[in-house]
Specification:
- Helices cover 31% and strands 25% of the residues.
- The chain is an alpha/beta fold and 292 residues long.
- The strands form 3 sheets. It has an 8-stranded mixed beta sheet, sandwiched between helices. Strands 9-8-7-10-12-11 form a 6-stranded mixed beta sheet, with helices on one face. The chain has a two-stranded antiparallel ribbon with strand order 1-16.
- A hairpin with a 4-residue loop joins strand 4 and strand 5.
- The two termini are 21 Å apart.
Length: 292
């Protein structure tokens, strides 16, 4: 009589609803102290085990994203600079980037100041080692982000840039963004990506254009994508993806177009949604008996 066959059990995760999980960083995946909770990290690890890809889609330039990708396990692609950069974190290089013409940026800035008076400006330089330069009077919205203070506005244009960041001493972000959109026209794309962060970027460039480029690289379609965000600059991304999830702390403009509203970034809103997807019976772990 033959000896009984020995079997071992292993767990295999079935595929999730979505092949691509696109997340903003500030106000979305990141908490206020620039950290990611253990619960969120665990949820992202589980969807990765289920076969989905996690893609960071952020307004931060590549040099300011690199250390965060190490935390969330992102050794692949990331969309940075509001879609102006496609960054390969594993190789530490830009696969694609588009810069904002500096003469157009200076002209756009002049048009805005003609309407609202003095604004304070900063720029993100292009490249994996690009600096963030800030002129006198500009206050960084995220004090943890490194920046180099320059003496004159002219010094902002000393090297190629991916975007211009604007602040006004009295106008709200919504007011400043509305005026900028009215007067800038086709010189640049105007976005609002966070408190104190109105930006000018290359015309036609949005998070959606960067996400679409990354998705093509990964072989993923919009119908396979779920996106998470918190600010108006995430609207194009929501329009592109099959499902857009706004955080509870999101700007009203984004909530108005979202397919779903989850808890805040401080309350693990992303993890709540991903855990729900993974809890569905057809996506639960299944135990397979396999011969060792």
């Amino acid at each position: 009589m033959a000896a009984p066959t020995a079997y071992a059990a292993r767990t295999e995760y079935a595929r999730t609803d979505y092949a691509l999980i696109a997340t903003d960083l500030d106000g979305t995946l990141l908490r206020g102290d620039d950290t990611v909770s253990d619960r969120s990290l665990a949820a992202l690890a589980r969807v990765s085990a289920a076969g989905a890809r996690h893609l960071v889609v952020t307004g931060r330039p590549a040099p300011r994203v690199r250390p965060l990708l190490e935390v969330v396990g992102g050794g692949g692609l990331a969309v940075c600079g509001q879609g102006a950069q496609l960054y390969d974190a594993g190789a530490d290089r830009l696969l694609w980037s588009v810069t904002l013409d500096r003469e157009l940026a200076e002209t756009a800035l002049g048009k805005i100041e003609a309407e609202v008076g003095q604004v304070y400006a900063a720029v993100d330089q292009d490249g994996v080692d690009g600096l963030t330069l800030i002129e006198p009077g500009y206050l960084m919205p995220h004090p943890t982000l490194p920046a180099v203070r320059i003496d004159r506005r002219d010094d902002l244009w000393c090297a190629p840039i991916s975007k211009v960041l604007l602040r006004h001493p009295t106008l709200s972000d919504d007011e400043l963004a509305a005026v900028a959109r009215m007067v800038v026209g086709s010189l640049a794309t105007v976005t609002m990506s966070g408190p104190g962060t109105v930006e000018l970027q290359p015309c036609g460039v949005t998070k959606a254009t960067g996400l679409a480029l990354a998705a093509r690289q990964l072989g993923v379609s919009p119908e396979q994508t779920i996106a998470f965000g918190d600010m108006p600059n995430d609207i194009p991304m929501f329009d592109w993806a099959a499902h857009g999830v706004a955080m509870a702390n999101a700007h009203p403009e984004l909530k108005a177009v979202a397919d779903e509203i989850t808890l805040s970034n401080e309350d693990d809103g992303i993890a709540v949604v991903l855990e729900r997807l993974l809890a569905r019976p057809q996506y639960a772990p299944k135990t397979l008996s396999i011969e060792p």
